[in-house]
Every structure is written in C-alpha cells, then in structure tokens.
Amino acid sequence: MAQVSPNLPTQKIKFSYQDYLLLPDDGKRYEIIEGEMYMTPSPSLRHQDILRELFKTIEHYISENRLGILYLALCDVVFSDSNIVQPDLIFISKKNRHIIKKQNIDGAPDLLVEIISPATKKRDVIFKKRLYAKFGVQEYWIVFPNEERIEVYYLGDSKFELFNVADNPQVLKSIILTELDIKLNQVFRDHEEYF
Description:
By secondary structure, the chain is of the alpha+beta class. It has a single domain, classed as tt1808, chain A. It is 22% helix and 30% strand. Strand 9 (139-144) and strand 10 (149-155) form a beta hairpin. The longest helix has 20 residues, at 45-64. The radius of gyration is 18 Å and the shape is globular.
C-alpha cells in the first residue's frame, strides 16, 4: 500500500458565507475569521449575567437618547465573504443604519463588545481585535469576567488604541457613547444578588 509523504503541502480549507449558511442550528456559536471556522459552545451563566447587565445599561441609554440600536448575540455581522462574526453586543448608530439587513449586519457597526471565555480569549483579544480594526469598527470593548475588568479601544490610524481600562467597582467611559457611565459593580454582580 502506498504511503502519503509527510512532506507534501497541505491546503487549508477556506470557508465562506455560503458555507456558514449551511451550518447546523445546534446551539453552538460559529464564526469565520479570514476563512477559518471557529466553534464555541454555549456561554457560561457568568457570561450571560454580564451580557444582560451590559445590555440593560447600554440599551437604556441608547433608547433614551435615540442614538441607534443595540443587538445581542446571536446576530451575524458580515464584514466580507470570509469574515462573519457573532459579537456579544453590537451597536449601530443612526448614521450607519443602512448596514442593517433582513438577515444580518452587512458592514462595520459603530461599537462591538466581546466577553471573553477561556475558549475565546486569544480569538477576542488578538484575531477579532485586528479584524474589527481592519473593517473600520470605531470602538471595541473586551470584557474580562474573571478579572472584572473592561478594556475600551478606539480606532486610530488603522489599528485600535487603548482609551480606557476600568476595573470593578470603577465607572466605564466610552468614546462613542459620550455621556454613558457604566458602573462595573452592577455589571459584575453575582447571580445570587438577584434573589
């Protein structure tokens, strides 16, 4: 029986948006970054607690001031045929509402938020940060649940620059949402505080 030489070049499969649309509805989170597919299982309850608190606070501010719309995951953001992501929170201002399509967001939102987990840390901190800057996202927040910290980045000359780091119980500030103050002791509440 002939053996395949270990020195032969291997071709990496590049995935597209059409491949993405064929994925099963199995409760897992799929994303394609630069043609490479990533799968993440359902998030932890801690992740969901943080997401809920951030959404409530930001949504209230955006709605009260009629600034745009805030979407929760799972919602597809299509940057290109080989770059489809599902950020935890997606803010689209009035001026960019044309990117909201029937099935997805087609283009760069104003603000994206990712809550990291052990499975997504490298992807969120390195790959997505680079990707979001490349496609023109104006502001990017990275939430670190274990450290109870949020880092806020803004788009400088083609890359993100650090604007603000807030640790619990400090107050988080945004560049885009200028008057919004987020008290991190509310964001990082323990679920037992709800009962």
